[in-house]
């Protein structure tokens, strides 16, 4: 059995034995507390007036279960080593002997595709010439790292050694501490059973809570102090407004929260804890609003078809790191993955993604030349994904080009190739945003949303920032769902987004 992080459940290792992908929008919603007005009071354990379940006993049972899992794993000879490894250096590393190996499949891939590649490539060079005037808009001041000499110019499949990293740290130490009990309570409140909890979930929740510590700091206690005094007076409104704006919740979302809080507190007097519970419910509803429109509550790679996730975002937002982390999670969850190194604008980016591919044990399709056609890489990667029957192809893209027009043209072209070469694929176009930039990051989103038909956001660097509230601004201002959140530089520091867990980590005292 593997723990499927996208479905949040243990699943059989063989995809054939897995439960069919019925209506995901239904099954995923059921795993999180409902948030529509009519059902929230009844379903949310925090807001119902009923006695709370015995979370401590639940936590004890989960702890025992985890210990048993770990003992069983320790007895399994193939249990692998912890996956936490040093992060890639800022500067690209030399390709390892392993990462430079060209697998046999490489030749398979670009046999009959050469004409199309040539066609697309010539289009690309014409476009490159057309946009010859350097007009840096994305990050003009950062010098480009020196190009890395590459021996050949043909696309490669870089075999990273599929067994390099194929397990979470199974023997990860876990203590029955305050963080464990808090995490257990969060899982129990979502209807989970103690025997179905994995150690990685506990570890992640603890990490998320720690990561959001700076945003949370003072927020909960100060809000409690204000709301515990009955209807909000002007001073109270101003105080909460300031707190939310400081957490980078954004003006639109802050106004909505204040309006709802004022209405609620005018209607009834709530003790501080209940006021916080009401606030939690409000924030969850806001984060889940995209699910009421065009988006399913979660993205899960669909079996039996190719899923392509296009990763966009400015340099430094964390695209490459995120790709490494997602492939790790996906591989852990039993999916076959492949990476397309389509940020060909910066040679260092290709090297960096290779390092992450090696870490997660996922092959990388790359064209070693600098400034080669990213659409050609994507074309080759799709061919490789088809021939290997991969479940998930992650595409790294450039975050900076000579100018905004080039960036958009390139993204549009990559998108066209995907639509042409893999018309049946389930495509997600994810914008990677650095949470530490807060509202500033949102402005960059516009460029990408025009060119890449965005379907969701990955919020990175939530650890150590006081701007965690930006998640609400993202959803409110872009109208897009958050799909993953990153809270650290390690390979296990990113997970699919859960509004329930996020809000608990943000507002639990
Ligand atoms: N603290 C923290 N750092 C992160 C996180 N995600 C990424 N980083 C760091 O952010 C830096 C930039 O990440 P990259 O993945 O290289 O960003 P990128 O968007 O791919 O940038 P380019 O490759 O230059 O386009 C790296 O030092 C990462 O370790 C996170 O969740 N938390």
UniProtKB/TrEMBL annotation:
It comes from the Bacteria. Its main location: membrane. Pfam families: SRP54 (PF00448), SRP54_N (PF02881). Residues 143-152 have a biased composition (Pro residues). Residues 481-494 form the SRP54-type proteins GTP-binding domain. The keyword Membrane applies. GO terms for biological process: SRP-dependent cotranslational protein targeting to membrane. It is found in: Cell membrane; Cytoplasm. It is a peripheral membrane protein. It catalyses: GTP + H2O = GDP + phosphate + H(+). Keywords: Cell membrane, Cytoplasm, GTP-binding, Hydrolase, Membrane, Nucleotide-binding, Receptor. Residues 14-27, 38-47, 114-132 have a biased composition (Acidic residues). GO terms for molecular function: GTP binding; GTPase activity; signal recognition particle binding. GTP binds at residues 313-320, 396-400, 460-463. The keyword Cytoplasm applies. Belongs to the GTP-binding SRP family. FtsY subfamily. Part of the signal recognition particle protein translocation system, which is composed of SRP and FtsY. PANTHER family: SIGNAL RECOGNITION PARTICLE RECEPTOR SUBUNIT ALPHA. This is Signal recognition particle receptor FtsY.
